[in-house]
Every structure is written in C-alpha cells, then in structure tokens.
C-alpha cells in the first residue's frame, strides 16, 4: 500500500554495507529490487526500488576503525523537527551519534541511540517522505507485502524504559500492550491498524552478549523458499522459518553479515 507516515512512524530503512555491489545483487535476486545509484553529491547513496517504488536505501561502508559494529540495517522514525528530537533524546537519557544534517532538499537526518543504547535514525522530510510502499500486517495476515518493508520491531532489554523513551522523544502516544506476561511482553507502536511495528521485551529471548536492535521485516510470498534462496545467494539463516500467531517468520543474514527478517502468511 502507499504510505503517509505519522510522527514516530518508521519511515525509512537503509543498509550500511562493505560491499554495495554484492548487496545490490543479493537483494535484487531475493526481492526483485532495482537499484538507483545516487550522484557524488549524495556519496553514491543508492535507492532500492520494488516495481518502481522506493522501499529502502543502501550505502557503502566508510573506513572507520572506531566503528566496531557489523554491516547493518538502520531504521528511521519520522519527526517534524529533527533538532527538537535530538534535544529530547539527550533529555531522555539517549545519545546522539550524528547531529541533524540536511540531505540536499530531501530532508534532514540524525542518528541517535535510545535509552537502551540501540541505534535509531530520525528523518524530517522535505521533498522525500520515505517509503513509497509498505506491506500490511493485521491479525497474522500479510497483504500487499511481497518484497516491501512490512514490520519493524525493537528488541530491547530495557522494555519499560524504552517505551517511555519513544513516547517522550517520538510522540508514541497510542501504543497498545498486546502481551504482558513473564515470558512475553510486547507493545505495538499503534493501537489501530495499519500497525507498523512493535517493541519486544527481549531479555529472555536474546543470548548472552547479543545486543538488542531494531529489526526490519520484508514481505515474502513463500518464507521457506525465500530463506532457501537467501542461502543459495550467499546469505545464511539466523532463525529457521516458523509459524507464529503473527504469520510465518524467518531471520536471515545477508552475505556480508547484515541481519534482517522476512514474513508472510502461515503455511
């Protein structure tokens, strides 16, 4: 479906990769994406499209010995004012990695760390609003989802503190708690459909030493076949396909180590 974000919505995602050519080939084969490479004024930033619609970005990794993290997908949340969002981030106990920076006439970006230390971007749109297509996930059914971003999930060890952080910084005012048991605590970003994502208390789900993260789910027509194809293309499977109350899901890793997930209708 077409998409008009509200403040605090996931509005864009991009891949930071050490091998842009290989990433373009991998995701192109897996999801049917085409790549539109940007000019020098944008550092070669690449827009990835599904059926002509912008669904993600990708950029080459810079030589930075101070960056210990692997190749990765980053999620950006919509903000009407990036300067105010960075100020609120500091006030709420987060950190600012990159102060607000204009990206031509497209908009203004900032890179932040939430109260749990998990990276998240902020995007203040000008001529570019973000995703031109997203999938719909409702009551376990996935629609309009093939090859497009469809769900965004924050896995965090600081569940209560993180919910408070995003409510204060990104104005998440209508979150809905759908589970609150010792084994499974989960809140969605919105209380009504279309729901775009949620927050998982991941303390009992992450292995020791594995940090929390924002995760993006791309829609797949057949989750099992897509997982097999990812492996054939040089990627790997981090979580085997499984049926859940929220559809059939799998966790994948691309050829240079960036984690992402896929989802679709249960078999």
How would you portray this structure in words?
- The protein is α+β, with helices and mostly antiparallel strands.
- It has four helices and 18 strands.
- It has helices at 20-31, 82-91, 159-170, 223-232, and strands at residues 10-17, 34-37, 46-50, 53-60, 72-78, 95-103, 107-113, 119-125, 136-138, 141-143, 149-156, 176-180, 185-188, 197-201, 213-219, 236-244, 247-253, 259-264.
- Helix 2 (82-91) packs antiparallel against helix 3 (159-170).
- The longest helix has 12 residues, at 20-31.
Distance from N terminus to C terminus (CA atoms, Å) equals 23 Å
Helix-strand makeup class: alpha+beta
Strand content: 35-45%
Unreliable segments (pLDDT under 50, ≥5 consecutive)? none
Please provide the count of β strands.
18
Bulk shape: globular
Mean of residue pLDDT? 92
Strand order, sheet with most strands: 2-3-4-1-5-8-7-6
Biggest pleated sheet: 8 strands, mixed
Indicate the radius of gyration in whole angstroms.
17 Å
Count helical runs: 4
Helix proportion: 10-25%
The succession of helices and strands, N to C, reads EHEEEEHEEEEEEHEEEEHEEE
List the helices and strands and how they pair.
Layout: E1 10-17, H1 20-31, E2 34-37, E3 46-50, E4 53-60, E5 72-78, H2 82-91, E6 95-103, E7 107-113, E8 119-125, E9 136-138, E10 141-143, E11 149-156, H3 159-170, E12 176-180, E13 185-188, E14 197-201, E15 213-219, H4 223-232, E16 236-244, E17 247-253, E18 259-264
Parallel strand pairs: 1-4, 5-8, 11-14, 15-18
Antiparallel strand pairs: 1-5, 2-3, 3-4, 6-7, 7-8, 9-10, 11-15, 12-13, 13-14, 16-17, 17-18
